[in-house]
Design goal:
single chain, about 270 residues, alpha+beta, Jelly Rolls, 5-stranded mixed beta sheet, 8 helices, about 30% strand, globular
Length: about 270
C-alpha cells in the first residue's frame, strides 16, 4: 500500500488539531526522550501540513520533510530516544499526535496502520540492502529476547481468527526462509525463535513475539529466516485473519507498528557513517 496523503490527513485530523510552528524552532531534539507517565512530555508523530522541516543528525543534514509527509514516527511509536533533530526550515503548520491520540485515531482509521506498516517495511528492505552491500549487518552485543504483545492478550485476540491451532516446532527446525514466498505470519506461544538476515541472528523472540508480518503486508518475499531456538509452539495467522485483526483491534495494530519500528531502528543504527 503506497503512501496516500489524504489517508494521512484524515487520520491525523480525527484525533488532533493544526498547530503553527515558526521558522527556526526546534520541534524535537536528537536523543530527546519522553516518559509517558508524564503527560506533558509525550513523544509525538507529526504530519506536516505546510512548510518544510530539516532533519539533522548531530549537525549534519540528513533530510527534508515536505508538505504532506509524516515524521517523528519511530520515537512516538516505540518510546525510544529521538534519532534526529527536527527544525522548522520555514514557517510550518503541523498536526501532532501522542501515543494515546495515535491509538484513538487507529480505532477510526485502521487502514492507516497498514499504510504505515508498508512504509516501514519498504524502509527496512532498503536498509537491509544497504547493510548487505556494505557487509555491515552485525549482531548487537546485548541482543535480548523481545515480545510485541502480552502473550495472554494475544492469544485472546487470535482465538477464533486463526485457521489452525498452535503448531509444535522442535528445537532447530526451520520455520521460514529468507526470500521465500509468504502465506502466514506467526506468534510465539511458548519457547524461543531466532530471526536471521543473511545468516546472522538479528532478533530473538519469546512468548508474545510476532514475526513474518512484513511479507503479509506487502505480499512479497520474506526478509528474514526463522528457526526454533528451543522447542516452541507457534500460532500461525493467515493474511485475511491478519487484516481483520488490524482493522478490528487497535492494540494489535499498534503492537505491530511498534515491532516494525523497533526492527527498523535496529537496522538503521547499523548503517555505516
Amino acid at each position: 500500500m503506497s503512501y496516500d496523503r489524504k489517508v494521512a490527513l484524515d487520520f491525523f485530523s480525527s484525533a488532533g488539531q493544526p498547530t503553527s510552528i515558526p521558522k527556526g524552532e526546534v520541534i524535537f531534539a536528537e536523543h530527546e526522550t519522553a516518559r509517558r507517565l508524564f503527560t506533558k512530555k509525550r513523544a509525538k508523530i507529526y504530519l506536516l501540513l505546510d512548510g518544510e522541516v530539516d532533519l539533522l543528525h548531530g549537525q549534519k543534514p540528513i533530510g527534508v520533510v515536505k508538505m504532506g509527509e509524516i515524521f517523528g514516527e519511530l520515537a512516538a511509536i516505540t518510546d525510544a530516544p529521538r534519532s534526529a533533530t527536527a527544525v522548522a526550515k520555514t514557517d510550518c503548520r503541523v498536526i501532532a499526535l501522542d501515543d494515546r491520540e495515535l491509538k484513538s485515531a487507529l480505532e477510526k482509521h485502521p487502514g492507516f496502520a497498514l499504510m504505515m506498516m508498508s512504509m516501514m517495511i519498504g524502509k527496512m528492505r532498503d536498509t537491509i540492502a544497504q547493510l548487505n552491500a556494505a557487509d555491515a549487518l552485525t549482531l548487537g552485543q546485548n541482543l535480548e529476547e523481545s515480545a510485541s504483545f502480552d502473550p495472554e492478550r494475544l492469544q485472546d485476540l487470535v482465538r477464533g481468527l486463526a485457521s489452525d491451532p498452535p503448531t509444535f516446532y522442535p528445537q532447530g527446525r526451520p520455520i521460514m526462509g529468507e526470500g521465500s514466498k509468504a502465506a502466514l505470519m506467526y506468534v510465539v506461544v511458548s519457547g524461543k525463535v531466532a530471526i536471521s538476515i543473511g545468516g546472522k541472528v538479528v532478533e530473538r523472540l519469546g512468548p508474545g513475539g510476532a514475526f513474518g508480518e512484513a511479507a503479509l503486508v506487502d505480499q512479497s518475499s520474506r526478509m528474514a529466516s526463522a528457526v526454533a531456538e528451543t522447542d516452541c509452539e507457534l500460532q500461525s495467522i493467515t493474511r485475511p485473519a491478519f487484516l481483520q485483526l488490524v482493522k478490528s483491534t487497535p492494540d494489535f495494530a499498534f503492537g505491530l507498528l511498534a515491532s516494525l519500528a523497533e526492527r527498523l531502528r535496529f537496522l538503521t543504527d547499523r548503517l555505516p557513517g
